[in-house]
Amino acid sequence: MILFLIALLSATTAVQGDVINLTLTEPAQVVLDECMYFESTLTSAANLSAGEYMIKITHSCYGSHFIEIKSAKGLETIQVNVGEDNNPENSLVEMDNQILNLKKKILQLENRNSYLQNLVETLNNINVELYDRTKEYAEENKDLRSRVNELSLMAENCSKVVEDLKATLKSKNETLTFLENENVQLKAQIDSLNQSLTAANTYSEIFRTLFFTTLAFLVGLLFAILRR
Q1: Distance separating alpha carbons of residues 28 and 72, to the nearest angstrom
Q2: Which of 36, 56, 100, 154 gives the lowest tally of CB atoms within 10 Å of its CB?
Q3: DSSP labels for 86-97?
Q4: CB atoms < 10 A from the CB of 61, how many?
Q5: Which of 40-49, 78-87, 88-97, 216-225 has the highest mean pLDDT?
Q6: In angstroms, rounded to a whole number, what is the distance separating the alpha carbons of residues 45 and 43?
């Protein structure tokens, strides 16, 4: 029984060497008889999406053969009746096998070629990306070198400023030491002057006392003379 809503064969009767079409209306797992294969995959079993697929019937097929279709709706089986080729050749079966093997090799080479092309494209993309990154890193390195040179000049200038400040500080310290020594000497002179002033004040008081004592004596003596 053929479910037309799931799968449809272009013919259920064929001759050895024919190609028939299988049309799927929904995704399914399709298993062919071993004497048949899909032209697209060169295999007898495949998980296929909805679409049309060509099935090769080799010369090793003869009589009734079956195609199993497994989908979400269940398992269906389609019968294919294969008749004998009217113009057979002695080596047709062997030629079918050779053709199938050659097709498999071609498919493998095509897949390999596609893989290599994709790999080359990927490598080219990586190479372009690496080139761009290398160029970007070179620019960054150039900027960093320029920045390092600027910082080196700044550090050199700072070193000179520090040396100048050290020299200025040394000079200031020497001046401060000199001034401190001068201050000590001045303090010593002031102390000496204070001592001299204190002594002068003492002598001044003594002289003042003697002066007034002498003056009082002389005045008293004068009054004594005048009374006589």
Answers
A1: 8
A2: 154
A3: SS--TTHHHHHH
A4: 26
A5: 40-49
A6: 6
C-alpha–C-alpha distance, residues 131 and 143, integer Å: 18
Is residue 98 very low, low, confident or very high in pLDDT (cuts 50, 70, 90)? low
What local confidence, expressed as pLDDT, does residue 1 receive?
43
Q: Is residue 70 scored above 90 in pLDDT?
A: yes
Distance CA 108, CA 51 (A): 23
pTM exceeds 0.70, yes or no: no
What is the per-residue pLDDT for 3?
43
Q: For the chain, how long is the longest CA-to-CA vector?
A: 201
Intra-chain end-to-end CA distance of the chain, in Å:
188
Backbone angles phi, psi at 24, to 5 degrees: -105, 135
From the CA atom positions of the chain, what is the Rg in Å?
A: 62
Yes or no: say if 53 and 118 are a contact pair by the CB < 8 Å rule. Answer: no
Residues 104 and 95: their CA atoms lie apart, in Å, by 14
d(CA 103, CA 96): 10
The angle at the Cα of 39, spanning 30 to 6, to the nearest 5 degrees, equals 30
Alpha-carbon distance of 14 to 58, in angstroms, equals: 11
Distance, in Å, from the CA atom of 47 to the CA atom of 27, rounded to the nearest integer, reads 8
The per-residue pLDDT for range 20-37, each reduced to its tens digit, is 999 999 999 999 999 999
Q: How far apart are CA 52 and CA 59, in angstroms?
A: 23
